[in-house]
Design brief:
Layout: E1 10-12, E2 33-35, E3 62-63, E4 75-76, E5 87-89, E6 95-97, H1 100-103, E7 108-109, E8 114-119, E9 126-129, H2 141-152, H3 158-162, H4 166-181, H5 185-189, E10 204-210, E11 217-223
Parallel strand pairs: 8-11
Antiparallel strand pairs: 1-2, 3-7, 4-5, 5-6, 8-9, 10-11
Length: about 230
């Protein structure tokens, strides 16, 4: 009987036995193939026959200049305030109110769907994660500002308050009183210590910068408020 035809790049596998204690049988009613890769010199890549195309370089991640993409951010914003108070420095060094259209721009180029923002000024991580099936396909400037502001508007829990020393508690309490004095009555009625109070007067946005080997991590810098 003639031997079965075998593809030149594959070889026939005979029944295999394993010992001790058990065995495994590879049926011979159908061929079992073992692939043999072509020698490296015979590899042909589509587009340039006869030579190996190098992999495409990963595009360099660029942060929007509003957030500090060119070292100095063009954002003028106090993180204790909502994003409607944010302004920007134009190319003519004038200051303009940001528009919804402006804030809808991607925070990075190419756009990202995940970000983790940390800061030396506070202990909480700002996590942004756009779900895969969301209508919002990338992280915009608005999402970044909203996430930073929202993270700092959370109440301070009892465990975090107990970790503070007496001097820190006094400073945080003064910051809370100052914030409540400027707040509407609805917030004053349920006044409590918020995370933003722990920053005291260091609430001026100074920009983001890369924060480690992961492109998703960024470091937020904050500065003191100016006394004009």
């Amino acid at each position: 009987m003639a031997a079965p035809w075998v593809h030149p790049f594959y070889s026939w596998t005979q029944p295999q036995y394993y010992s001790p204690g058990y065995w495994q049988y590879v049926p011979t009613s159908y061929p079992m193939y073992q692939q043999h890769p072509l020698p490296e010199q015979q590899l042909v890549f589509r587009g340039q026959p006869g030579r190996q195309n190098p992999p495409s370089p990963r595009p360099e991640l660029q942060l929007h200049r509003f957030l500090g993409g060119q070292r100095r951010p063009t954002a003028v914003w106090d993180v204790s305030q909502g994003i409607l108070t944010a302004r920007r420095i134009t190319s003519h060094n004038s200051i303009e109110q940001v528009t919804p259209h402006f804030l809808s721009q991607p925070a990075t180029e190419p756009p990202m769907s995940k970000m983790r923002i940390v800061s030396d000024s506070f202990r909480w991580d700002v996590i942004i994660d756009i779900p895969p099936r969301s209508s919002q396909r990338f992280i915009s400037l608005k999402i970044v500002l909203d996430a930073i502001h929202g993270t700092l508007q959370e109440p301070l829990d009892q465990e975090e308050w107990r970790e503070k020393c007496a001097a820190d508690r006094r400073r945080i309490y003064r910051a809370m009183c100052s914030r409540l004095a400027k707040s509407p009555p609805s917030i004053k009625a349920g006044g409590c210590v918020w995370r933003i109070d722990c920053l005291e007067d260091r609430t001026v946005f100074l920009g983001l910068r890369p924060g480690g080997p992961s492109p998703e991590q960024w470091i937020l810098s904050l500065g003191p408020q100016r006394l004009d």
